[in-house]
Write a structure and sequence with these properties.
Blueprint: E1 7-8, H1 10-21, E2 24-28, H2 34-42, E3 48-52, H3 55-68, E4 73-80, H4 87-95, E5 106-114, H5 125-132, E6 136-138, H6 143-160, E7 164-169, E8 179-180, H7 187-205, H8 212-222, E9 229-233, E10 239-243, E11 258-263, H9 271-277, E12 284-287, H10 300-308, H11 312-315, E13 323-328, H12 333-337, H13 340-350, E14 358-360, H14 361-364
Parallel strand pairs: 2-3, 2-4, 4-5, 5-7, 6-7, 10-11, 10-12, 12-13, 13-14
Antiparallel strand pairs: 1-8, 9-11
Helix pairs in contact: 1-2, 1-6, 6-8, 7-8
Length: 375
């Protein structure tokens, strides 16, 4: 095996994973993807690489591959959010739940870098529209996870026969910052572990049918994740923070009656794992997922948790129905809450039960509106 660098950027992690796990890679021809390009083009037995600059070029390339490739091909797409507006209709046309013909032999993973420098918010609404359409959505938050989750997305797409969306906050993962990462875990090992896990699951359950939620649990465990949802913090926490991305607040939870629940695979929503992870006496859920431009409208995860708390499965475990608060911000939440002074000021303001169901992080912390800042 060729030697791998010990320190990489998140974008290099994506390129390293795609070079090993995909047959064809489509990459946006953009400055921040230079590391991705370099890793793809320098790999041994590298995949075919296609560079695109516009959404129209992206759609054209994807359609051509779907239409022309007749064997089982793994396609990895790596672009910024500005290029993806035309991709969902393509996915629905070829992979939608209601199509009346066999799905293509091309399995697709879509890795999206969301940029918010100079804009009003980190907008993931368009990403979560893929979740609304029924596609699996996962989100890495570190360079290590950019490497791991790109592999997971490609493997999951091959297993489920449907596209998988893998998105991250590029503000939080600067393309010019290098981090120590283990890149020696090949996707072949994950795939083999998943196959063993699946065979054991079928034997133990005596049934060959597996739901997509169960498939994601098996894949995550094969990729050294304990579950599709993970909890850290106090076992008697009354306030629990929830997000898809990892906002690096766990280190500040010691000696507080708080916890942090991270959702590793968002669609299908791992409801059972969420219920099993939450402390029974939780009183407040704080949703930390930015997805709007502050339209004062509740987002996807807020609505999902409201639905969970109405279910019978929830009622049987918990002492009372917790209140849910969604946090919006014109600033990137992971960057702000990774600083202890800001986090504890935020916690002091958000913990009381009389807090409204929709709050603005920048207003709590006394920050100016981001739109008024000149870049």
């Amino acid at each position: 095996m060729a030697s791998r660098p010990l320190r990489i950027t998140a974008f290099e992690g994506i390129g390293l994973a795609a070079s090993e796990s995909s047959d064809i890679s489509i990459v946006e021809n953009k400055f921040m993807f230079l590391g991705t390009h370099a890793c793809l083009e320098s790999s041994i037995g590298k995949p075919k690489v296609i560079k695109v600059q516009t959404g129209e070029e992206l759609v054209k390339s994807v359609v051509e591959i779907i239409e022309n490739e007749k064997s089982n091909i793994r396609l990895a797409i790596m672009v910024s959010a500005s290029l993806i507006s035309g991709i969902l209709p393509v996915f629905n046309k070829y992979y939608g739940e209601n199509i009346n013909r066999p799905r293509p032999s091309v399995s697709i993973s879509l890795t999206v870098a969301i940029e918010s420098f100079g804009s009003s918010a980190l907008k993931s609404t368009e990403i979560l529209s893929f979740a609304d359409a029924g596609y699996t959505v996962i989100s890495p938050s570190t360079p290590q996870e950019c490497f791991d989750y790109t592999q997971i997305a490609i493997i999951t797409a091959s297993v489920t026969g449907a596209p998988v969306i893998n998105y991250f906050d590029s503000d939080n993962l600067n393309f010019g910052a290098w981090y120590q990462v283990n890149t020696t875990g090949p996707s072949k090992c994950i795939t083999e572990s998943y196959i063993r896990n699946r065979e054991d699951f079928i034997k133990s359950n005596g049934d060959s049918s597996i739901t997509r939620s169960q498939e994601m649990e098996l894949i995550m465990k094969a990729a050294y994740r304990s579950s599709t949802a993970s909890y850290i913090g106090s076992p008697i926490a009354e306030t629990v923070f929830v997000s898809i991305s990892d906002y690096d607040i766990g280190v500040w939870l010691d000696n507080t009656s708080t916890g942090y629940l991270r959702i590793h695979a968002y669609r299908p929503l791992p409801t059972d794992a969420i219920i099993a992870s939450l402390p029974k006496n939780v009183k407040r859920i704080v949703i930390l997922e930015q997805e709007s431009d502050l339209a004062e409208v509740h987002g996807h995860i807020y609505r999902d948790f409201q639905a969970i708390f109405k279910s019978q499965a929830f009622i049987s475990k918990f002492e009372s129905t917790p209140l849910v608060t969604e946090v919006q911000s014109t600033y990137s939440i992971p960057i702000i809450l990774s600083h202890p002074p800001y986090f504890f000021q935020f916690l002091e303001n958000i913990a009381p039960l009389n807090v409204s169901s929709l709050v603005r992080l920048d207003q709590i912390l006394g920050f100016p509106d981001k739109e008024t800042i000149e870049y």
